[in-house]
Design a protein that fits this description.
The chain contains three helices and four strands; from the N terminus they run βααβββα. The protein has helices at 10-47, 49-88, 108-145, and strands at residues 5-6, 90-91, 102-103, 105-106. The chain has one domain (17-145). It is elongated. By secondary structure, it is mainly alpha-helical. The strands form two sheets. A two-stranded antiparallel ribbon has the order 1-3. The longest helix has 40 residues, at 49-88. Helix 1 (10-47) packs antiparallel against helix 2 and helix 2 runs antiparallel to helix 3 (108-145).
């Protein structure tokens, strides 16, 4: 029996490349801005350690919110995709555009993939929440550590 495949969608491929490029550029800009901000905090710490501590605390809180949001967003997307696969008993689910030719998996094998996706989504969601919580709590401990 020949394997069923879903053909690649060239528009989806271009869109995925564009999104990945934009995410990469935003990440590079964020890293550059963070490095500059940390240099400013380091310079401030010599003159006013209290102000430097407050600015560092703010930076860590922004990092906590960003990290939590990013990981929870990935977890929600993966959960939604995995749930669609589980209900349809088909991977990729109907209507999903793929960036390369993909072999269609049906039945129990698709449900196993869906279950693994749901488990990974749950782990990423918990990781996002815990990472954000720990980073936020770190800001309350900074005066002790400083």
């Amino acid at each position: 029996m020949p394997q069923e495949t879903q053909p690649a969608d060239l528009v989806a491929r271009r869109k995925a490349a564009l999104v990945a490029s934009v995410i990469g550029l935003v990440a590079m800009a964020a890293i550059f801005a963070a490095m500059r901000y940390l240099q400013d905090i380091k310079a401030t710490s010599v003159e006013d350690p209290g102000e430097a501590l407050a600015r560092l605390s703010t930076a860590i809180k922004v990092l906590a919110i960003g990290t939590g949001f990013a990981l929870l967003s990935v977890a929600a997307w993966l959960f939604r995709l995995s749930w669609r696969i589980y209900r349809a008993e088909r991977f990729p689910p109907l209507g999903m555009r793929v960036i390369r030719r993909t072999r269609v998996v049906r039945g129990e094998a698709a449900r196993v993939r869906a279950f693994l996706g749901l488990a990974i989504a749950g782990m990423i969601g918990v990781l996002g929440y815990v990472a954000a919580l720990l980073l936020w709590r770190l800001t309350t401990r900074l005066p002790v550590l400083w």
